[in-house]
Write a structure and sequence with these properties.
Blueprint lengths: L6 E2 L16 H8 L17 E7 H5 L3 H12 L3 E7 L4 H9 L15 E2 L1
Length: 117
């Protein structure tokens, strides 16, 4: 499996075909809206606070357990994680292109991240 330099990841996204990773926040949030949280409640990226997580691509490739643990713990707390992985030097580009735009509402098409980790 080829891991792109930049993308979005979720531990429960394991498609039978195609990429395991998402290429933009809108695609990820659309997929996530169909998930049930640990309490059986459907995820609602428009109601739940969105927290962008900037992660190192190497940690995704290495399958470090803290990544899955963090994403799932945020969901359990009623938070919509937006886990974006990067090579390390793209953080400013990701914030500019994925999370904010001139109108400050690029993530999810009409929703920006409430905070960054």
């Amino acid at each position: 499996v080829v891991t792109p330099d930049v993308g979005l990841y979720h531990p429960r996204h394991r498609p039978a075909r195609g990429s395991r990773y998402f290429s933009d926040p809108r695609e990820y949030l659309r997929w996530r809206s169909g998930l049930a949280d640990p309490h059986g409640r459907l995820a609602d990226a428009n109601a739940d606070p969105v927290v962008a997580l900037l992660l190192y691509r190497k940690h995704i490739i290495s399958e470090l357990p803290y990544v899955d643990d963090l994403v799932l713990a945020l969901e359990k707390a009623g938070i919509a994680p937006l886990p974006i992985f990067i090579n390390g030097v793209e953080a400013h580009v990701i914030v500019r292109d994925y999370l904010v735009s001139r109108d400050k509402s690029k993530a999810g098409g009409a929703r920006s991240s409430d905070t960054f980790l």
